Amino acid sequence: MAVAQAARGGQAQAAHGGQAQAANGAAARKRPRFSSDLPQVWIGIALIAITGFVPSLVGNAYWVHTFQLVNIYIAAAIFQNFLFVDAGQKSFGQGVLLGLGAYVTAIFFGLHGYPFAVAALVGLVAAFLGGLLFALPALRVQYFHLGFVTLSAAIVFPQLLMSLDRWTNGINGIPVSMPSMHKEIALGLSPLTILVALFPMAALVVHYMIRRSTLGRRMRVAAVSPEAARTLGIRPGVMRFIAFIIAAIGTGICGILYLPAVSFVSPQGFNVELSFVFFFAVVVGGRGQMLGPIVGIWVVFILPNIVLAQLVEYRLLIYGLLTLATVMAFPDGIVGTIERWRVRRAVTGRGEEAFRVDAFLDGLRGEREAAPGSDIAVEVRGGTKKFGAVVAVDEVDLKVRRGEVHGLIGANGSGKTSLLNVLSGLSRLDAGSFLINGRDATRLAADRIARMNLGRTFQTPRIFPQFSLWENLKVGIDARAGTASPDMARLAAQLEAEFAEDSAELLSHGQRRLVEVMRAMLKEATIVLFDEPAAGLSQSERANFARLVRFLSRRMGKTVILVEHDLDLVWDVADTITVMEQGRIVASGDPASVARDPAVQHMFVGGRLA
Hints:
Elements: H1 2-12, H2 14-30, H3 37-58, H4 61-86, H5 94-111, H6 116-138, H7 143-163, H8 165-168, E1 174-175, H9 179-182, H10 191-212, H11 214-224, H12 226-231, H13 236-262, E2 264-265, H14 272-285, H15 292-307, H16 315-329, H17 334-346, H18 358-361, E3 376-387, E4 390-401, E5 405-409, H19 416-423, E6 431-436, E7 439-440, H20 446-450, E8 454-456, H21 469-478, H22 486-499, H23 509-522, E9 527-531, H24 539-555, E10 559-563, H25 567-573, E11 576-581, E12 584-589, H26 591-596
Helix pairs in contact: 1-24, 3-4, 3-10, 4-10, 4-13, 4-14, 4-15, 5-6, 5-13, 6-13, 10-11, 10-13, 11-13, 14-15, 14-16, 15-16, 21-22, 21-23
């Protein structure tokens, strides 16, 4: 068989591949880092320290006050950046959360005489509740639909402050006096100066730590591909909810610091343009860049409000013009465009051999080779799925044994992917049921099914370009239920050493498919659904994939359901083959018996089994 011969050829090349991987590993250690997030954090901390402390050290009161406000806005923009990019949420209402923190603190401290610590705590709770109010729509809507919801809040907020004058003092605002916060401690530095310099530094570090954490990766996966996130056990709505709460708490603290910095709050201070400042700062500085909010605030806030102070009544126009000019000159923002240039110049792939799996499989011992068992891992009973008048899955009965490779073939539109979507929870059956490892999963959500040790790939590979190649693989580890097996832990360490600084964007289509396959493998799912994984693979890559499928089944005991148009591949690796046509199963059995079935002979015309 052609595939078998290619597989033997692939095995013959394994030793050479291992040497190539080792050489590539040595080269990887010399390559520039894929992400510049950490250097940007250190540069950002240095810049904040300069603008935060130097005016006090030289005794310039005007710039002390100016940069106190600038640093508060930088911290708020950092949380806007986190929400915008890491969580994928377009919020135009962050100025409301800052205003809630400031105003509620001022009400309790300035009007009712509560201790500042108590008032600040109440203000933080108010900002938290405001974030909760924003987060609830995020469970249902996202992107710019959510932006319109938050924008309406930003428009209404100052009007609300004026209409509730019984509690807010209306248009007159609330003055506060906090001389202890402005009292010099040493070298011209006051407690307020230190606080408003340290907090944006802390915000920058927190953003970096979240981004590098499992939670941060899950948020970014949910932001880019909610469908893939659900099949990895991630609930996108929950990720959006958590992101809003984190951003609300951080922005609320900015509001609390705003109060002693300005010593006065009024409705005019929290107009909708304040929210625009934070949003435009992220766009101008560079979406997703750690240094972006700092540069963005300098351009968007300092330029129109300080350098062009005589044109203050045209602030909104200036914000728009600055944003337009910057985006035209720097399409990815100032820092983002520089970073994109750095990545294109320094970070590379490895051509056709960028991602191979054969050399890594040689290091996996696995269990002794075993045949499929008699237990049923997946069972569909009378499954029917309709899309309007179209019946995609029509009264399907299917049994998949534990540890077998079950090929699912048929023409385009025969219902194969629709059946996989049902099994992975991305769509619901209209009639019938299905069981996974004996448990009824018919009405379970996709994330719950994924946590039952089920993994899958897609027809279009879900690759996340903001992640390095290793981080794309690590998403599978994040989705793992339980601890890693020794073999998988060793494999993960090898993959990290090899691909930590490689770009996933530079992979070919076939290599991206293999990355998604390896991600499912690292998840250590006991049941794996492959949706046309060989499409776009070269002959050698197909041989590697065939070897991987056999390894998963025979050596690791995985149950594999393989949807594939490459009949050579299916007949080479499958234990059982099921043929679908117009949503129905027309044949099922071992490869030899299916090949002889008259009902499916027409599928093999012009193929290997014609």
